[in-house]
Every structure is written in C-alpha cells, then in structure tokens.
Amino acid sequence: MLKSKPCFILYKIMVPVFFFSCLLALSSPQQTYAQVQSEKGLPFIVNYSPKTFNGAAQVWSVQEDDRGIMYFGSQNCLLEYDGNKWAKINFNSTASGSVRAMAKYKDGTIYLGNVGDLGYLAKDSLGQTQFRSLLGLIPKENRNFFDIWTIYATDNSIYFQSREYIFRLRDPKTSELGKTDVKVWKPQSKFMFAFYLDGEYFVHQQGLGLYKMTNDSLVLISGSEYLGKERMQVMLPYIPGPNGEKQYLVGQFNSGLSI
User: Fold this and answer.
1) What secondary structure, in 3-state letters, does 96-141 show?
2) pTM over 0.70
3) Mapping DSSP to helix (H, G, I), strand (E, B) and coil, where does residue 10 land?
4) For site-directed labelling of 179, which of 12, 64, 137, 170 has its Cα 20 to 30 A away?
C-alpha cells in the first residue's frame, strides 16, 4: 500500500494538468486568431459631434502640427484638439467665415486662410495658440478677396489661392530681398482650385482651362481648354505616357474623370 500511494498522488496531479493543457490548446488558436483579426480589422474610431467641440458640423480642412495637435477648419471658426480638450482659436481681424485650407511649412508653421484674411498660427506669451495675420504684407489694392480655397507649401514658398488672387509668400530665409516677399497673380476669369504635384503648381481658371506656373508666369496647358467648361475638383498623379511624359488624372464636378 505504501508503494502505491505516490502513484495515486501523481495521478491526482496529472489528470487536472492534462485537462488544463487540453483546454489551453483549444483556446490558444482562438485567442491568436482573434488577435490577428483585430489587427486586420477596422481601426478604432471615435466620433465627435458638434456639441462635443462646440462648433459647426461642416469641416473644410484638417492639419496636424509637429506636436501631434490637430486643427480643424470649421464653419466660422478654427478648432484645436490636443487629444483631451477642444479649444477655439479667435481671429484678430474682422474677417469671418470658413477656414477652407491649411498647410504646414517645413519649419512646422501652419498657414491658413479665412474670408479676406490669411496668416499663420503661433504661440503667445502664455502658450496659447493665436492667429497672426499677414494681410499687411499684401498690397492694399489686392486685399479685396473672399475665401482662401487652397494653400500649398513648397520648398521655399507658401501659395494662397482665392477666386480673386494667388498670393505667394516666399520664405524670408531664401528671399533675395532678405525679408518676407509677397507676389500676386490676377486671373483672367476666376481661379477655381489650385493643385501642387511633382513640384509644380497648377491652377484651374473658369472658362479657360488648366494653367501651370512657369518662371513666375501662369501658362495655359495646351489641350486643357475643355476643362474650363466646369469646375475642376481633383488632380492626381497618373502613370507616365507612351513617351515617358507626365500624365495626371483630373476630376470635374459633373463630367467625371479624364486623363
């Protein structure tokens, strides 16, 4: 009897271990499968209602700064979100309207436009984000404009496009004048939307076609006249042509896509 006792004790230990191992073997693939599926599945999404951020439902533009702070161009205001709380950024000027466009320059500065105004975001002495207008740099005869529809940051400049004008703000560090330099272009009809692709600046003019900035002049792209008939909304890179020439996919408001 004394010899069989250790075997009985071992049996009592091994039976639960065996069943536990079986359960673990059955559950592990499911856990692994669930983990893989979660990694392949939909991302976590959080919806914020206008009541949450105390703003309008329509958002025109979104920009992230170098710290990860998010900015949203809403109807009649600019919203700042740090992942915890929302804040509104006021405009010093009398301008009001949607912030339809924003762009971040290589030094991290965020530029934006409003109705009749344009500028950038900076911190005040208390660390609060403020809008600083650059309207004073624009010649007085060119300050009568409405929405800024597009903003693009290039290697050494910022382009602001309204229906009435295109303004180019050149980086003071690369300006031949040694200070902030602004150049203005006027349309023959109306500037509808601008695009910046492959280091080149394009703008669509109502009723005329697509223009490319060449040596500081807007030059009509031959064969693009048909694009002037209606509003051009999209311009994307496309596969090169038969001779290696650049091609673009363009989308219009009603006519769809073309190359």
Assistant:
1) CCCCCCEEECCCCCEEEEECCEEEEEEECCCCCEEEEECHHHCCHH
2) yes
3) helix
4) 64
Q: 205 pairs with which residues across the strands?
A: 191, 209
Pick the closest to residue 167 from 188, 190, 151 (CA basis). Answer: 151
Helix (H) or strand (E) holding 19: helix 5-40
**What is d(CA 259, CA 257) in angstroms, rounded to the nearest whole number?**
7
Region of residue 233 (left: phi > 0; alpha: psi -120 to 50; beta: else): alpha
- The answer to whether the beta carbons of residues 247 and 254 sit under 8 Å apart is no
Task: Sketch out the chain's domains with CATH numbers.
Answer: 50-186 (2.130.10.10)
Per-10-residue mean pLDDT, the chain, length 259: 44 48 50 52 81 86 95 88 90 71 95 92 88 91 95 95 96 65 94 95 95 97 89 88 86 82
